[in-house]
Design a protein that fits this description.
This protein is an alpha+beta fold. The protein contains 3 helices and 12 strands; from the N terminus they run αβαβββββββββββα. The protein has a single domain, classed as Galactose-binding domain-like (Jelly Rolls, Sandwich), CATH 2.60.120.260. The strands form 2 sheets. Strands 1, 4, 5, 7, 10 and 12 form a 6-stranded antiparallel β-sheet that branches. The chain has a 6-stranded antiparallel β-sheet with strand order 3-2-6-11-8-9.
């Protein structure tokens, strides 16, 4: 095939790709301050799109099993609850409390998770999106306020046990590779102040290599033997701060391919 014909074919391919992307699902900006959610409704967080997933490991870190994905609960002994009473002027009345799944995983017959005293329970609470590698290209930022509870926070481990680990995260998962984790960008919330709120951000650069993958923003804790894990979060914002237009991204990709063909033809 001549370089002219290849160039013409690439132009058609770029145009077709631009047309096909128009109907694809893409990342969307997201914000939540929890003020509009009904704190008395056990399904309020699930109805707002929050999901949970749990993993259990041996005390030595070997994977045992996972469970989920389920709608996030509002209250109870596992994962998440709308909380109030410790917000500052910027937080208003309500925010989210993230903690371990203390239901995991049954006393007596199963005797796993928190109930055997040595297993590590990883509890995840998140919002999930699908990446369109062209329409979504750019630098995305996840910003949040955070504070430890005045008592029973992640910074207060049970006597004689290692401190629990609590984090905010941006994560990407590849469904084509068994949902392998391809990015895991974290902020360690284990020792944040229990006296004052602070604001923090995480960033991820989204490009064509992540097309079709899942992106999660959320919070996680890993603990054992009913350790304290509570962390408060509020004023969540996820947005594309430096977008790259889809046409520009595709055009740059086409130019890169053409440059590679020229080098091969010249050699």
């Amino acid at each position: 095939m001549s370089l002219k014909h290849l160039r013409e074919g690439l132009c058609v391919a770029v145009a077709a790709a631009l047309f096909s992307q128009a109907g694809s699902a893409a990342l969307v900006s997201y914000s939540e301050n929890f003020e509009g959610l009904n704190a008395a409704d056990p399904g309020a967080l699930g109805a707002a799109g929050w999901r949970i997933f749990g993993n259990v490991f041996t005390g030595g870190g070997l994977f045992k099993f996972g469970y989920g994905v389920f709608a996030a609960p509002n209250g109870g002994p596992g994962f998440s609850a709308i909380a109030s009473g410790e917000g500052g002027p910027a937080q208003g009345n309500q925010y989210i409390n993230i903690y371990s799944d203390y239901n995991c995983c049954g006393a007596g017959t199963t005797n796993e998770g928190h109930f055997n005293g040595t297993d590590l329970v990883e509890s995840n609470v998140f919002q999930e999106f699908t990446i369109d590698g062209t329409a979504d290209a750019g630098l995305w930022t996840f910003t949040f306020d955070v504070k430890a509870p005045s008592s029973n926070g992640c910074d207060a481990p049970a006597a004689g046990t290692p401190q629990a680990t609590c984090m905010a995260f941006i994560k990407t998962l590849n469904p084509a590779a068994g949902f392998a984790t391809t990015n895991f960008i974290t902020f360690d919330s284990s020792n944040v102040s229990n006296a004052a709120w602070s604001t923090h951000s995480l960033q991820i650069n989204v490009d064509g290599t992540l097309a079709g993958q899942l992106l999660q923003i959320g919070f996680t804790s890993t603990s054992s033997n009913f350790q304290n894990t509570g962390v408060y979060y509020d004023n969540l914002v996820f947005s594309n701060v430096v977008p790259v237009p889809a046409a520009a991204w595709l055009f740059a990709s086409a130019l890169g391919l053409l440059a590679g063909v020229r080098r091969r033809l010249a050699s």
